[in-house]
Specification:
3 domains; 417 residues; Dihydrodipicolinate Reductase, domain 2; 16 strands; binds L-homoserine; 6-stranded mixed β-sheet; alpha/beta
Length: 417
């Protein structure tokens, strides 16, 4: 006996990079039993490769249409997206969204709405585009076994780092290319300053550990402060610099999480993740390390995840938020130590008192760096390390949980004063 598949009648919001991709892909997927009834757009004057009759500028034509049982929200404006999604869920329509900013900023409200109206709200495309990471964390990894995940979750910054460090392009030139390819957010500062990665991390934390965190509470920095000196250091040591979103369950059961640039060596699978590709390493008690790799931005890779959500809706799939609802949720902690490299202009700006222990330092007239152990809670409560001209990069053996900081002598400070 075959399982009954639902007919999906879609109201689509947005017809830019991803919306166009979805439209094309759906035309090639007749077996999906899904058709787009109406598309709501903002700029009717733009030329589009689809019949004019499909488009409207009136959202009510979609939201009040009882035939439409799925709303796919692929617009750029997070506030407008929130309005559309809450209206659609409240009227019993299933929703698929790619809007990581909107989801991360409104998770508690969106969780409550799903519960109240018992409707599916799927957003696989919001994290790592073509990599099915949300559903894997949700369905496959039991909370007790999930030790950590770390990933390159922003395609634009990875693309920029590749172009800058591999092809020696200027940062600005590389950003323009990322924008031209359709990888970057319309406000590229969200990519460059690590906020897009932060939003994705906060969504992943919910599915991995049942943690619903306000993104602003999580330590983060993007690639905006990286310097040529850092690239030279990386090359000398055989590292690559990547922007990594990381979460790790510590020995006390609490979870450390942050988005920061990291040096990765060639034993780390993220080392070879280049261009707009994303990669996520998931570490669990039994399976050890697993590595997911795929395109993390762009029209078709993102549309492929939206398509997969639509496909799941035919069987009424919903996220169960297992870890959250089973009351085994972890808690975020800032109570740990991290091994970091900090580079800065001029010897007298050495923030030696910020370190618990200094392991290496070097200085030249133009730029200096220090490697040492830092108390993470001090990073959270300060911003000296984010100031223009200073760059902080996490080292490969990052976690220094067992450091006996009190044993430290004054020696390490003396070298710098
Ligand atoms: N700007 C995002 C990125 C798009 O570069 O990853 C995909 O979420």
């Amino acid at each position: 006996m075959s399982i009954q598949q639902k007919q999906l009648t879609i109201g689509l919001f947005g017809f830019s990079v991803v919306g166009t991709g979805l439209y094309k892909v759906l035309q090639q997927s007749p077996s999906l039993n899904a058709n787009i009834k109406k598309v709501c757009i903002k700029h009717p004057e733009k030329k589009r490769e689809a019949p004019e009759s499909l488009f409207t500028i009136d959202p009510e034509l979609l939201l009040q249409d009882n035939d439409i049982n799925v709303v796919v929200e692929l617009i750029d404006d997070a506030d407008a997206a929130y309005h559309i999604v809450t209206r659609a869920l409240s009227s019993g329509k299933a929703v698929v969204s790619a809007n990581k900013k909107m989801i991360a900023e409104h998770l508690p409200e969106l969780l409550a709405l799903q519960k109240k109206y018992d409707v599916p709200f799927l957003y696989e495309s919001a994290c790592c585009a073509s990599i099915p990471v949300i559903r894997n964390l949700e369905e496959y990894y039991d909370n007790d076994l999930l030790q950590s995940f770390s990933g390159i979750v922003n395609g634009s910054t990875n693309y920029i780092l590749t172009r800058v460090f591999q092809d020696k392009l200027d940062f600005d030139e590389a950003l323009v290319l990322a924008q031209a390819e359709g990888f970057a957010e319309s406000n590229p500062a969200l990519d460059v300053e690590g906020i897009d990665a932060l939003n994705k991390l906060s969504i992943l934390l919910t599915h991995a550990y049942g943690i619903v965190a306000n993104p602003n509470e999580i330590v983060h920095c993007g690639i905006q402060n990286l310097q040529t000196h850092d690239a030279i250091f990386a090359k000398e040591k055989g590292y690559e610099i990547k922007l990594v979103a990381q979460a790790k369950k510590l020995e006390d059961g609490n979870v450390a999480a942050f988005v920061l640039p990291q040096f990765v060596d060639n034993t780390n699978q993220l080392y070879n993740v280049r261009n707009e590709y994303n990669g996520v390493i998931i570490e669990s008690g039994l399976a050890d390390k697993q590595f997911f790799y795929g395109k993390g931005a762009g029209s078709f890779p993102t549309a492929s995840a939206v398509l997969s959500d639509l496909s799941a809706l035919r069987y009424d799939y919903k996220y169960e938020y297992k870890k959250l609802n089973n009351k085994i949720a972890g808690e975020l902690t800032n109570d740990f130590f991290l091994r970091v490299y900090v580079s800065f202009e001029g010897l007298f700006q050495v923030p030696h008192e910020k370190f618990e222990r200094i392991e290496e330092w070097s200085s030249s007239e133009k730029r200096c760096h220090v490697i040492g152990i830092i108390q993470f809670s001090k990073l959270k409560n300060s911003d000296w390390w984010k100031k223009k001209g200073t760059s902080l990069i996490v080292l490969p053996d990052a976690f220094a949980e067992h450091i006996a900081i009190k044993e430290e002598t004054e020696e390490s400070y003396l070298v710098l004063v």
